[in-house]
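Hi there, hope your week has been kind to you so far. Please have a think about how the structure follows from the sequence. I've dropped the whole record in just underneath, so have a look:

_____
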Amino acid sequence: MLRRGQQRFRGMIPSGFGGPRLILLGIVGLIVLWGLNGLYRVQPNQLGVELVFGKYVGLPTEPGLHWNWPSPIGQVFRPDVTRENRVEVGFRSSGDTGRTGAVRDVPEESQMITGDENIVDIDFVVFWRIGKVENFLFELQNPELTVKFAAEAVMRDIIGRTRIQDALTERRGQIEVAAQTQLQGLVDEYKAGIEIRSVQLNQVDPPSQVIDAFNEVTRAKQDLERLKNEAEAYRNDVVPRARGEAAQLVEGADAYRQEVVNRSQGDANRFVSVYNAYSQSKDVTTRRIYLETMEEVLRSVNKVIIDDNGSGSGVVPYLPLPEIQKRLGASNEPSQKGTN
């Protein structure tokens, strides 16, 4: 290479001009210029990867000014390691976010079979960033395409173990987390040097051909849940009330049982005590029982007391107790009214 450079330089110099020193100076100048071409700058959002004779050497260079062997001996890659890359699966968008521009559906990517053998149409986005720069550059030929295929495979595996109703409603967040975890493990197996930042489900719907029928089924299920909730509320209202009434009846019956038993026991104890008293003193007990019985019988009867020793011609001395009580009651009523 040096010989060819000398020949070219000699061809450029006019005949009779210069000498060996000038040729040597020119060669040194060319070498210096060639060495200066090895200077390169790494931006704050980049990492530098140096190659020497096509082989990766050293560690990634940090932002700043660095030097490596110029071409054809050396080569430098400076990938952006802070940029958030996105891969769309199931759709293609013209805008940066997939919402501002026109969106084209890709059914061969988005339609998947669920665990209960239904078909669901899923559009999702994978956000990723360069993690290990040397693996990213040299282990995969097309990292973005690899991420896309791996994400689609992981999502099909997760949806294949999920019911369609769960995928459409409450398990969307769990699906996103599981997809991110499994996808990160898969790209790590590939030594892709990629960090999966997040997986976002943009749209989860039944296929457009059966979406009307599916909506009818969903509404029917919602009506079923509503009726079940109403029945459950009615049961929660009736059953406790019935249990309360049953408990009240049981407690009332138990109280009545206790009352009857206690009364019976009291009567039995009373009879036993009377019998014991009668056994000890029959005359006194007989007379007491007679007097108590007469008191009970004559309590509500009009009574007239007649004196056996009364004397007189045709007049029987007696004490009209009922009339006296009536008179006393009539005389007390006016006084009570006046007092009131």
Notes: The chain has a mean pLDDT of 81.
